[in-house]
């Protein structure tokens, strides 16, 4: 099973509303990162939250991390059409002696005008 | 623009063939990562190079190989191609050797096997 799993798989909301995506993981982590992928493009790093941090903000983005529940959430406030994309969480972990980013399957976000 | 350049953007070939994907990392970045993204598998880490040396290996098939050259560009070689190798292949780079720092992605090479 995957280290990072996003929930929901897909989310469709009206422009101006807030969008919340969740990520759960299984092992201890060093940090957790969120990336955005527009259709047909590469992933873009959005924000990194370290294991000793609980909340972080960047513009309209708010990320929380609960290490006791092994989960994180990404909140996008006042959504815009340009926020339509897939969002991935990646956990920085040591899996089988491999230090790497472990990626979730992503949440597809659609912002309706 | 991430500063990571991948060529070609699209590649169409047949089963059994061999292809080479090329990646130029962001200026100053020493690490290069290769990923495969397919519809049913998500983003799969293949391999990381740091300053010319292999640093970490993920789910890379034996038919696949990679290298990083002295100028830090990298190539991913895929041989004996199968239909299931059809996917988007991404290259990413980061400034140091830790895979835990933010990575900067190119726009990928879309490989279609006919």
Mean pLDDT of chain A: 91
* Major β-sheet annotation of chain B: 7 strands, mixed
CA radius of gyration of chain B is 13 Å
The averaged pLDDT of chain B comes out at 94
Radius of gyration of chain A: 14 Å
**Percent helix among the residues of chain B?**
under 10%
The SSE string of chain A, one letter per element, is EEEEEEEEEEE
Number of helices of chain A: 0
N- to C-terminal separation of chain A?
Answer: 36 Å
Would you spell out the secondary-structure blueprint of this structure?
The complex is a heterodimer of chains A (113) and B (114).
Chain A: E1 5-7, E2 10-14, E3 19-24, E4 31-37, E5 43-50, E6 55-58, E7 61-66, E8 71-76, E9 85-95, E10 98-103, E11 107-112
Parallel strand pairs in A: 2-11
Antiparallel strand pairs in A: 1-3, 3-8, 4-5, 4-9, 6-7, 7-8, 9-10, 9-11
Chain B: E1 5-7, E2 10-13, E3 19-24, E4 31-38, E5 42-50, E6 53-57, E7 64-68, E8 74-78, E9 87-94, E10 104-105, E11 109-113
Parallel strand pairs in B: 2-11
Antiparallel strand pairs in B: 1-3, 3-8, 4-5, 4-9, 5-6, 7-8, 9-10, 9-11
List keywords for this structure.
heterodimer; A: 113 residues; mainly beta; six-stranded mixed β-sheet; 11 strands; B: mainly beta; four-stranded antiparallel β-sheet; 53% strand
Overview of this protein structure:
- The complex is a heterodimer of chains A (113) and B (114).
- With 113 residues, chain A is an all-beta fold.
- Chain A contains no helices and eleven strands.
- In chain A, strands 2, 4, 5, 9, 10 and 11 form a six-stranded mixed β-sheet that branches. Chain A has a five-stranded antiparallel β-sheet with strand order 1-3-8-7-6, with no helix packed on it.
- In chain A, 35% of the residues are buried.
- Chain B is an all-beta fold and 114 residues long.
- Helix content of chain B is 0%, strand content 53%.
- In chain B, strands 2, 4, 5, 6, 9, 10 and 11 form a seven-stranded mixed β-sheet that branches.
- In chain B, a hairpin with a 2-residue loop joins β5 (42-50) and β6 (53-57).
- Chain B is globular and about 35 Å long.
- The termini of chain B are far apart.
- The model of chain B has no long low-confidence stretch (mean pLDDT 94).
- Chains A and B meet through β4, β5 and β10 of A and β5 and β10 of B.
């Amino acid at each position: 099973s995957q280290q990072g799993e996003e929930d929901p798989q897909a989310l469709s909301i009206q422009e101006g509303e807030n969008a919340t995506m969740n990520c759960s993981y299984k092992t201890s982590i060093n940090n957790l990162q969120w990336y955005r992928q527009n259709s047909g493009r590469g992933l873009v790093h959005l924000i990194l939250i370290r294991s000793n941090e609980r909340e972080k903000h960047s513009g309209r983005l708010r990320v929380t991390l609960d290490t006791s529940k092994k989960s994180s959430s990404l909140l996008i406030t006042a959504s815009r059409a340009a926020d339509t994309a897939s969002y991935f969480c990646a956990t920085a972990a040591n899996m089988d002696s491999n230090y790497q980013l472990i990626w979730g399957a992503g949440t597809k976000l659609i912002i309706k005008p | 623009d991430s500063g990571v350049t991948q060529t070609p953007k699209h590649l169409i070939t047949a089963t059994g063939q061999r292809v080479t994907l090329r990646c130029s990392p962001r200026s100053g970045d020493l690490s290069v990562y290769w990923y495969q993204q397919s519809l049913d598998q998500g983003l799969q880490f293949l391999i990381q190079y740091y300053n010319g040396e292999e640093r970490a290996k993920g789910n890379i098939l034996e038919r696949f190989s990679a290298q990083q050259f002295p100028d830090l560009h990298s190539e991913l070689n895929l041989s004996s191609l199968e239909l299931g190798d059809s996917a988007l292949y991404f290259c990413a780079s980061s400034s140091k050797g830790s895979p835990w720092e933010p990575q900067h992605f190119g726009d990928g090479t879309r490989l279609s096997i006919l």
